[in-house]
Amino acid sequence: MPASPAAAAPSRRDLLRSAGLRCTPAREAVLAHLARQARPLAHRELARARALAALDRVTLYRTRAALQEAGLVHRVRDQAGAWRFCAHVRRGERCPANHPHFLCTRCGRMRCLTGQTLPWITVRGGERITGKQLVVYGLCRGCRERGAR
Amino acid sequence: MPASPAAAAPSRRDLLRSAGLRCTPAREAVLAHLARQARPLAHRELARARALAALDRVTLYRTRAALQEAGLVHRVRDQAGAWRFCAHVRRGERCPANHPHFLCTRCGRMRCLTGQTLPWITVRGGERITGKQLVVYGLCRGCRERGAR
DNA sequence: CCCCCAGATGCAACCCGGTTGCATATGGGC
DNA sequence: GCCCATATGCAACCGGGTTGCATCTGGGGG
């Protein structure tokens, strides 16, 4: 594995292409940003990012969706009702979003609670379960120390 | 306990008033409808209800909120990002919404999975937890039998 | 039983997340 | 380098939810 700066990472480009997606500047930038932040980002947070500010908002929405459908990214609904997208930390995990998420109700930051899996829920009544999500919310440490309550 | 039809139920009116709310037609109607349905209802479902169709949508939003703040009702975010409100089945429960919810992604109906409590999630990092919610989604029995997939 | 006002309702306008239709630009296989 | 499937940008739209303001009313006090 070469150590040259350009080739150090497993190449966004290869990642996108092997997921069956065309490699475009928008997708590279969004994927890079999600990977760098490594926490579930809302549309606003993406739109505010310097590298993504120039993108049309529709493009941003479509890019998020494309990355998610291609399996490079997972998403959670936050308590404000918006989707948040997060790059998979390790590729090839069996269920990449099978963990709870924490959301700070003050600063709006969300983080993955990796290392804990979602509980097994039994639903009696013949339903076919296709997914689940658990969001824990409250005040993050920073917000708790900074302000009262 | 009297058996006359008028006094059989514990009176919506008393419920509202003891929760510190004025008793208005809108609130009585919304509370009655939520109690009758006994599952988390989205704004659309409330707005479509015959008894509530005449209400202004803002009133509906404010009524939902009032009932919830007064503790007569709890709410969950569904997978579409909208709030759903559900009347408490029993009053005085310690944590009235401390159960998972099932959402059918086809017909959009949601139901409370009472009888199961939410798991204890440990969040390391000094966060103060104020709430959590677990939504399980999939196809309900009816939709599964009715359509394919 | 009526008066009166805090609080509830209705209306209009607005915000924001998200989607759709369509014309134009471009990635990448040939 | 060509060419087309597909990605982007733009404009318009949808739906959930909120806000400001004028009007109405529940219900406590007289």
Could you explain the architecture of this structure?
The structure is a homodimer of 149-residue chains. Chain A is an alpha+beta fold and 149 residues long. Helix content of chain A is 33%, strand content 21%. Chain A is built from six helices and six strands. Chain A has helices at 5-8, 12-18, 25-37, 43-48, 57-69, 141-146; strands at 41-42, 73-77, 83-87, 101-104, 110-112, 128-139. In chain A, the strands form two sheets. Chain A has a three-stranded antiparallel sheet. In chain A, helix 3 packs across helix 5. Mean pLDDT of chain A is 85; it is low at 1-8. The interface between A and B is medium-sized, with 34 and 34 residues. Strand 6 of chain A pairs antiparallel with strand 6 of chain B, so a sheet runs across the interface. Chain A binds a DNA duplex (30 and 30 nucleotides) through residues 22-24, 26-27, 42-44, 55-59, 61-63, 66, 80-83.
Low-confidence stretches of chain A: 1-8
Order of helices and strands of chain A: HHHEHHEEEEEH
Profile the largest sheet of chain A: 3 strands, antiparallel
Strand order within the widest sheet of chain A? Answer: 1-3-2
Structure class of chain A: alpha+beta
What's the oligomerization state?
homodimer
Query: Hey, which two chains have the biggest interface?
Result: A-B, 34 and 34 residues
Radius of gyration of chain A: 17 Å
Mean pLDDT of chain A: 85
- Estimated helix fraction of chain A: 25-40%
User: Globular, elongated, flat, extended or rod-shaped: what is the shape of chain A?
Assistant: globular
DSSP strand content of chain A: 15-25%
Distance between the termini of chain A: 50 Å
Number of helices, where a helix is a run of at least 4 consecutive DSSP H or I residues of chain A = 6
Q: How many β strands of chain A by DSSP?
A: 6
